[in-house]
Amino acid sequence: MADRLDAIFSSYEKRGDKLIPILQDVQEEFGYLPEEAMMAIAKAIGVPESRVYAVASFYAQFRFTPMGRNHVMVCRGTACHVRGAARILEEAERHLDIKEGETTEDLEYTLETVACIGCCGLAPTIVINDTTYGRLTPKDIGKIFDERKETKE
Amino acid sequence: MTGPDRTLFICQGTGCVSSKSPEIRAALQDEVDRLGFSKHVSIKLTGCHGFCQQGPIVVVEPEGTFYSQVKIEDAPEIVESHLQNNQQVERLFYKDPVTGEAIPCYRDIPFYSRQERNILRNCGNISPEEIDDYIAAGGYQAIKKVLLEMEPEQIVEEIKRSGLRGRGGGGFSTGTKWEFCFKADSDEKYVICNADEGDPGAFMDRSLLEADPHALLEGMSIAGYTIGANIGYIYVRAEYPLAVKRLRTAIAQARERGYLGENILEQGFHFDVEVFLGAGAFVCGEETALIASIEGRRGMPRHRPPFPAQSGLRGKPTLLNNVKTYTYVPIIINRGADWFAGIGTEKSSGTAVFALTGKVANCGLIEVPMGITMREIIYEIGGGIPDGKEFKAVQTGGPSGGCLPASHLDNPIDYDSLNAAGSIMGSGGMVVMDETTCMVDIARYFLDFTQKETCGECIPCRLGTKQMLDILVDITEGKGKPEDVDLLVDMGEAIKKGALCGLGQTAPNPVLTTIRYFRDEYEAHINDKQCPALVCKALISYRIDPDKCKGCMICVKSCPVDAIAGEKKQAHVVNQSKCIRCGMRTSSQDPVSTEFVHFPEQVRAQGQFLHPPDVP
User: Fold this and answer.
1) Residue B97: burial class (beta carbons within 10 Å; 0-12, 13-18, 19+)
2) Arithmetic mean of pLDDT over chain B
3) Which of A136, B189, B322, B339 has its CA 20 to 30 A from that of A17?
């Protein structure tokens, strides 16, 4: 872990105002923020560990537990909401058998909601990794996950 | 090939990309190459055309043919029929939702013809990844003009005279803000662009960044020159990867051509721009919170004054404007303050960009003169409410704004009229709601959002919105008390007065406006335990009309929780304790209302079954 962290630190000036970009890079590298890494960050840029944790816990982007291999984001923007996003989320929760914010036991999926992905013209939408699915109905959710399962098998 | 040399513009905004527009572009290119037309046909990617509802969009110039909802399989036909044989592909024409008429040319489509596109002028017409396209469209002329011909004072004067007001929400005079920063005495100053577009239902800034990033860079450079700053930051949401990528490409190109960096246009002015990725906190749209975030701290607002214009980033004078505000600057410099001031209304000059979404036929990004009415936007540009539904409300300004009813449809839209109605202009989100939208649920939705996004610093926002949310949840679950409505109003007014920052002060607006204009819906939930829009689950149930059910079994198969029982050719029954009121197939495309849930489209369309909800 130390090598991977050093590689990230080397591209930044060792200043407190680089904390957020460094946290973003570390999370990109490890998929989450391991405790060890956060302590190393504090040491590297010379700020208290409490500050690293305070900042990391403030922003929605940062996570302290590993994420599933596939990241599912259900958009809950206003346009999606009035076009039935709540039911899309319920259907996704039922299909994956986890609640919003959780990860499946096999680490295959993490289910989250997002305030708005900005594809309001396609509402309601979900994003799985880099793929956006739009104009959805609750029925489509089952199809999407079934198809993903099939292509994997 | 017949006809003139042609250019195909293919939208690659986030909306169209998610509908596979890159693959469509590749398929068109393959066809063009295969038929040997590449000398006469160029295929260009563009940013958002604005008409996201109809995406993916392909525009063929010079005819201006507008192909909507194009699929990969359509590529050969477009190339063979249109490019080879000069026959436009009629089946891909846009069809007017009101008249049903097919309209071949985008200039004739009411969605476009009713707009006045100034900062959106390049969106859909140039490639955002090629600086030469921007320059060919008149780009980087304004920075040349100010560096060669104008003193900072003159620029401040020009912006003031244009009447431009902040397009991020507050609506403060841009020229005055620039003047404060210009006059602030400091060895170092900063320019920051707020691209932390967090309002749910708003995508104006994202579309601009994706479609015309150089215009923003030019506007920021002019700002830097005016106030005496050499460094600019663009604070953009990490959730907008495509916008970030295009911005970075644009910055690299601008540096290479000498529009950013040292000694710009050899006039001795240095200015460079850095992209800062937000980490997902809505409150960072507030200027002091945004600055805290760039400084590597928790994004929590602080008291003002001092305003950032006096003491901002690292304690230095800082100019902070929204993406759209900066993007208006080059065009104002080029065309003059008088031109801009001549558009719109006296106190709200120019045009405004809105993201028109929700229950409206034509969703998309629009630019219209200030002072236009809601009715013109929703019914003429937006094509009205789909599926024959009735208009109920329009929500402007996101979680800080309010819901305005039909009686406001003919009021002109500007900063002051929206404020007077209890809403705000905001950043430009405009969500249309119809009879199937429950206003109590909408108020609950926004409070839920605010409650999740409160930074926790001041008590009115942290605890006040929590209390309001709890009351709203009770009302939507049929547990509301008659005195709740007045309590909500009292608390809302108190939070407006007591909260520290704009987020908290405006958080009660969705509740207060829905109470002001739709009090009857609150009363129906509380007194009659009914949700008139049939949205609040605790207050609705579904049953099957035994006289009309023919026992086709389709509903049994599509019910996700086996709540429907019954034999073939016999009337079915919904087990109320199992039913989760999933509202299968309730979406905008749904041709029939929520009353027909549990039943697949084809059966409902035949009208064989009527299964109205049983409102207890």
Assistant:
1) middle
2) 89
3) B322
Query: Which of A60, A76, A94 is the closest to B200 by Cβ?
Result: A76
Please say whether the beta carbons of B457 and B292 come within 8 A: no
Q: What is the pLDDT of residues B3-34, one digit of tens each?
A: 789 999 999 988 888 888 999 999 999 999 99
What integer is the mean pLDDT of B338-362?
A: 94
Q: Where are the domains of chain A?
A: 2-58, 70-152
Task: Give the relative orientation of helices B484-498 and B465-476 as an angle to the nearest 10 degrees.
Answer: 160
pTM beyond cutoff 0.80: yes
How many residues does the structure list for chain B?
Answer: 616
User: Which of 135-194 (B) contact A at CB < 8 A?
Assistant: none
Superfamily per CATH, domain A70-152:
Glutaredoxin (3.40.30.10)
Q: Which domain holds residue B616?
A: 540-616
Q: Which of B14, B281, B395 sits opposite A118 (nearest CB)?
A: B14
Is the pLDDT at A130 greater than 90? The verdict is no
**B329 closest CA partner among B446, B468, B242, B214:** B214
Contact B276 A114 (CB under 8 A): no
Domain A2-58 fold: Arc Repressor Mutant, subunit A (1.10.10)
How many other CB atoms sit within 10 Å of the CB of residue B454?
Answer: 22
CB B60 within 8 A of CB B82: yes
Structure tokens at A114: 């997002």
Which residues are paired to B231 by β-bridges?
B190, B272
Is residue B198 domain-shared with residue B304, that is, in the same domain?
Answer: yes
Residue of B nearest to A21 (CA): B277
pLDDT in tens, B81-118: 999 999 999 999 999 887 889 999 988 999 999 999 99
- Residue B560 pLDDT greater than 80, yes or no: no
- CA dihedral for B349, B355, B360, B364, sign (positive or negative): positive
Distance CA B85, CA B83 (A): 6
Task: Report the distance separating Cα B165 and Cα B175, nearest Å.
Answer: 8
